[in-house]
Amino acid sequence: MPKLNDPVYLLLAPCVLLFGALLQLTIARICSARVKGIVAAATCLPALFSVISLLPRIQSGDAIDINLFSWDGPLVLAFHIDSLSILFAFMGTCLGAIVLVYSIAYMRRDPAVTRFYATMLVFIGGFVALVYCANLFCLYLCWEVIGLCSFSLVGFWYQQPEAVSGARKVLLMTHLAGYGLLIAILVLYHRTGTAMWTDPRIGRNFSTGIFLLMLAALLAKSVQVPLHTWIPDAMAAPTPVSSLLHAACYVTAGVYLAARMHSFATWLPSWNLILVSIASVTMIVGVMYALVQSDLKRMLAFSTVSQIGYMLLGIAIGTPLGIMAGLLHCLNHGFFKGGLFLNAGAVQHAAGTRDMNLLGGLASRMPRTLLCWLIGVGNMAGIPLMSGFVSKWMLYAAAIQAGWAIPAVIAWIASLGTVFMCAKATSAVFLGPPSEAAQDAHEVSPVMQWAMGLMAFGSIVFGVAPQIAYVLFFHPMFSALGMDTTLRVTWLGMFGGVGAFSTTGGLVLAIVSFTLGTAIFAVARISSRPRVTTVAGSAGILLGGPSDVFTGGEPLWEHDRLSAADFSHIFEQNWRSFFRWSNVDKLYAYGFQQLLRVAQTLVRPMAWLEQWVFQGLLVLAAAMILSALWMGRISPVYASIDTTPMPALLIGSICIAAVTLVCAAATTNEEKFLPLQLAVPSFFAVAGCMAQVEWQRFALLEAAALLSIVPVWKAARTRTSRLTYVVVVLLSGLCMESSQLLAKPEQIGWSRALLLTSVCIKFAAIPFLFWLLRLADELPAIVLAFILAVIDIAALGQLALRVEVDPSLLFPAAPWLVIALLTSLVAGTLMLAQRSIKRLLVLSSIEDFGFLLLGVASISKLGLEGVLLSAASHALGKSLLFIAIAAPERDGALARGDTGLATRYPYSAFGFLIGMLTLLGVPPMLGFAGRWKLYETALSIHPGLLGGFVLASMLALIAYVMAFTKLWWGIPSYDDKRITTVDTTERYFPPLIHESMILKAVILLLFVCILGTGVWPSIVVQAFQGGRP
């Protein structure tokens, strides 16, 4: 029997969930959708029991700290499990289990249930790991993992334009803001030398700037103004996703981070003011937009924006009562809002729509769903005996006690709007005579009813007995934080120490009032038979013609009913200015348009240089050499070049890239000799990497570059492109050879100038980007990948090792750093204006080369480690990207401009996504292991340098996401015929074009290498050390 501090026991919750995801892949072809759902829901139970079993240990106020092993430098797999962690882990596993039970019936007919259940389990496991992590880098890794799961699940029905648009918006807004969290972690590590937030040094160095950076990340994740606009578009996801991610867990990850920041450091009053202000604005904005929605799920989405504002308001107040109110509302919200989304899914499942203007009269046909709905909206509206009332009452009391009277009033006003919104939705969906859409509606399956019932029950428990949550979660939390553990104000007058529960006269009065009101309603319903009802969309006035909108002052015809438009029209008409000025999406669209203008401005001179490619190469090379000669006046410290073995990781990555490219060429290219033409120079490149003598390494790598001319010459479409590559190879090789020959103290200036010129030409850095762009559309994807992933990466490894043994070659480093930064920024900007996917991938390689030049120019151990790790990920990721587009290129899909290619090339689409994330350095891919080192290197040189490279990463992310969702997702088109409509209930699947087994195996091999080394970085570290003396 394992003990509570046994690492295996503590890891049970996240590990069993990840194991469940792998199990889904294993049983994909042997089990039905129903069995897969049962297995997924059952997988959550051991995780839930593991979390609950930790409660006795946590109740004493202690925390469980455990360090398992070090991954790479500050990346340590360490857990700090306290009551705050247990609260959110309980939410993830408990609500996750309920939602997966609901999914058994809801998703039973979807052909992609394996992908659905596997991603949901990965999300729950990542969420639990997130709240357990004591290491900030690991926390960021989990932060991005759940973000990727949200992107995948929102885009689950990727043939629907709404799903594509929603997934794109989710990833862009949350990941771009997530860079704030990453920068904050890098700054903290730079200042303290530790990434463990439990270390006291973190608190001493936690400044306002770091708070604001983390705040940006949590605002986007928790849909707070102005980063809230992605959540209504995310409603294109399946209903279980909306319930678990966008009501219960994903959006509350930011709430967890805000609460956890109280553990990092004592908050300054300005921090409280900032978050209180944002939360107050968010409560109003969220409820106002919810009031004018006609789509049931979008209304619930905007109400989530408002409700999370309540949570963050409580946390921002910072008192024990305020924090408890915010976190209790978070727990309550998970149950009642998660349940409301499940109710909305049941309505859509039964009626075929979620448009409230088309619904009505479902109460008689779905009475159990109505009951669960009423419990949910009662909680959201804050009706007594409901948990929502408890947390809101506590929040009002905490705000007033702490002197935040205005936010308390704002919260109360937002509650009034919430009541009106709940009345609108209930009336439009359930009351009145059945609408046309509701004629054939019926109660959903018992499995879905049980799930909705469990959500409703959970939302009642903490309303009747809120002390349960206090005893289980909040008292030990306040004890650990050193806060007052005695609640002075709670609802119904409760007060006292641990476990005290006083059934006061207030509770009796609430119960009596509820019972009496129910009795009066029942008697009135039986005795009265009104001839004029209060139901239906086009309200008719008895003495006159019909009115467009019911205003409340006129009676309705007997068969009329109130629609959602009747409630929202008055707000749309009278608050038109508010909705116009609060629509921040217009601001984001304007900013994106300005970025495109800048990119298009840069395209023009680049296009001119592409036309005059030979002249540009020669003139710019001469100009760079002459402008760099001033370095010769600086007296260097000269060191002879020693022999340094290349790391085994880089050699292995180049080998894998070469082998996979040769295999892909054999199956995706009609030129039968192309595999051989790629294999020969690959052999020389690998041999050069393994050479122990410097001159042998140089000779073999230059021979590989010369031999690479053969496949380029055979494959290029025009003579100009062929000659361009020949000139580049000869010119860069000549400059490199001359640099080595002149590497003497008296000629060091020439040596440096020639080395800089050679490197810039070789890697198409500023100002030589144009030659590689000229080749982009002229060469097959596989040949481009061979140049970028094998030949260039081998040469980069040689450069890094040469600089490592003779740093004086890069002295001074300023020109190198400027060129590196400009290369990444210009390439990232140009990516936004590309219509050709191959040109975009070429520019992304140039953008990545800027990062690699940064590491080389830093002449630091951390920087050179980042270079070699990033070079390895570049070789694998770039090979995967170009292999992914090789099959569509072979079939003419790229030339025709086809979209929705994931339907025909699912493995290729998957490979493109993984390669994209690798190049962007998104955890848990291998690219993150190198990128964070390069970011930290930039920070150690100058904070502005870090900002520039992060901006380049953001630009590349935007371009990649736009390209991926346009090329691979969306309405499929094929054979020059575009499908203009897609059934939203039964997805259309055109016939699959065969992806060969070799191509699938190559993509899976690269994926395993990238993900395996990224998830288990100790392998990377050991491989990096391989071959070192």
What does this structure look like?
Its main location: membrane. Among the domains are: 223 residues, no CATH class; 51 residues, no CATH class; 360 residues, no CATH class. By secondary structure, the chain is mostly helical. A hairpin with a 2-residue loop joins β1 and β2. It has a two-stranded antiparallel sheet with strand order 1-2. The longest helix is centred in the first third of the chain and has 32 residues. The radius of gyration is 31 Å and the shape is globular. The protein starts with 6 loop residues before the first helix and ends with a helix.
Mean pLDDT: 84
> Strands across the major sheet, in which order?
1-2
Rounded radius of gyration (Å): 31 Å
Percent strand: under 5%
Low-confidence stretches: 493-506, 528-554, 635-643, 975-991
* Coarse structural class: mainly alpha
> How far apart are the first and last residues' alpha carbons, in Å?
45 Å
Principal-axes shape call: globular
Number of helices: 43
Largest sheet: 2 strands, antiparallel
Compute the number of strand runs: 4
Residue share in helix: over 70%
